[in-house]
Amino acid sequence: MTSSNSPYAVEARGISKYFGGVSALDGVDFKVQWSEVHALLGENGAGKTTLSNVLAGIYRADLGEVAVDGRVQDIRTPAQAIEAGIGMVHQHFKLVEPMTVAENIHLGWPDTPTMVSQKALVERTERLMEDIGLHVDPTAKVWQLSVGEQQRVEILRVLARGARILILDEPTAVLTSHEARDLFKVMRGLVAGGRTVIFISHKLNEVLEVSDRITVLRDGVHEITRSADGATPQELARLMTGEERTLEIDHREITGEIVLEVKGVTASNDRGVVALSDVDLVVRSGEILGIAGVSGNGQSELAEVISAMRPVDAGSVTVEGRDVTNGPVRKLADLGVGHIPEDRIGVGMVGSASVKDNAVLRHYWTEELSTGLSLSRQGVIDFATRLVEEARVQTRSIFATAGQMSGGNQQRLVARREALLADRVLLAVHPTRGLDVLAAQEVQTAVIGQRDAGTAVMFISDDLDEVLLMSDRIAVMYEGRIMGIFDRADADREAIGLMMGGHSLEGAVTS
């Protein structure tokens, strides 16, 4: 690594940023030392992403300056940020899936030789991986890689271009627990080699596990920078939100009637490989059935089958005895089935449309909104205004573009819209992924409210702690099969962990 001129890898001095007259950052000072993992915390809308985008050259600060290794830099573009030594890996990857790992790493890189052969690209990539200490098959197509491997390619792309300061935006949001542990090893290895990592996350336990120091932003203002040693999740949550909040859930014996039944369901994934194999499940009125499992073991396909987004090869799905196998989607909505999807941006909403249009997206045929041949303009405005107020969605206007809202506000909008549909069934798929503590608790509270109102809830999450917190019963999935089902009172973390890894336990209930 190149020698350093300053103890600080990067300094943001008095950074202010405004959007339409609204302050996103207000005089923020942020100092990150060399050879440390520095966590950047805050609620959705606190300014974390804005600050990281300023450092990475995506936004330009309205006031203040950025210094790298003690030298003030005029960073106007991501290319200039990379030249200064700052690179950013975004939560949503920017790889070209049909291309190989080697091709993706060299794509758009000025140092890539012209008219270079595939063999030479692979050899250059292997040398780069050896130098950095990160390894992925350079000949593999990106679409063949796991999410964790794709993330490694993104990190390699940034480091190959000379970045000494790496910004990771919610890097574990889409990773399994095992992949997250692997990422932490990578982060510590980079730091040991003299680089610096800025780690943006909402997962407080992970922050405390891997970080050296922590900075908290609140409402666009620097709240505190402190050592991670001795910090607690409760303290960090209080600093982020300005208040203490705990979620209390009453788990009780389930006596309601069966509302949702999945019987003998087999289905294939997008590549034609069996993703669900003879799955039997029931969800009763007034219960939350949690689905536990390592990501990629059929949970997503299960939700898609129930919501008629994926065809069933065999078996059936019924709601209160009515066959809804393979939909249509409108029939499910009419029967009171709501769906908070895994991908809120790509599936749950239309980012380029207004908040208003997204609010009525699944309600436009109701009497309140429809006049027969057209929509009632005032009815739509009233409905959207009410939904936004009830869900506490923070937006400057219901006519604003939905994609410009923070992730937490997008999820509040989608969750409330689907809850209004979910008289009988609610499918909640990773509903708190990427949300801060307060936003996650709001979504969790809304899900519990649905259960208490008599809705049958299926709750899917990769976070076992969250599944244990939320569920009245827990079903464990592995390679598209149900390994066992536990009542909450009998749930054993070790047994569930073994089942998530494919180990069958004698006497386990599987339906």
Q: What features would you describe in this structure?
A:
The protein has a six-stranded mixed beta sheet with strand order 6-7-8-3-9-10, with helices on both faces. The chain has a six-stranded mixed beta sheet with strand order 16-17-18-13-19-20, sandwiched between helices. A four-stranded antiparallel beta sheet has the order 2-1-4-5, covered by helices on one side. The protein is 33% helix and 25% strand. The protein folds into two domains: 8-241, Rossmann fold, CATH 3.40.50; 258-507, P-loop containing nucleotide triphosphate hydrolases (Rossmann fold, 3-Layer(aba) Sandwich), CATH 3.40.50. The model has no long low-confidence stretch (mean pLDDT 90). By secondary structure, it is of the alpha/beta class. It is globular and about 70 Å long. The longest helix is centred in the middle third of the chain and has 16 residues, at 177-192. A hairpin with a 2-residue loop joins strand 14 (314-319) and strand 15. It has 17 helices and 20 strands.
Summary of the model, kept short:
With 511 residues, the protein is α/β, with parallel strands linked by helices. 33% of the residues lie in helices and 25% in strands.
Helical region count?
Answer: 17
| Gap between N and C termini | 56 Å
Report the count of strand segments. Answer: 20
What overall form do the CA principal axes indicate? Answer: globular
Strand order of the largest sheet: 6-7-8-3-9-10
Calculate the mean pLDDT score and round it.
90
CATH architecture of the largest domain: 3-Layer(aba) Sandwich
Derived structural class: alpha/beta
Name the beta content range.
Answer: 15-25%
State the major sheet: 6 strands, mixed
Q: What is the total domain count?
A: 2
What's the CATH C level of the largest domain? Answer: Alpha Beta
CATH homologous superfamily of the largest domain? P-loop containing nucleotide triphosphate hydrolases
What CATH calls the topology of the largest domain is: Rossmann fold
Q: Level of helix content?
A: 25-40%
Unreliable stretches: none
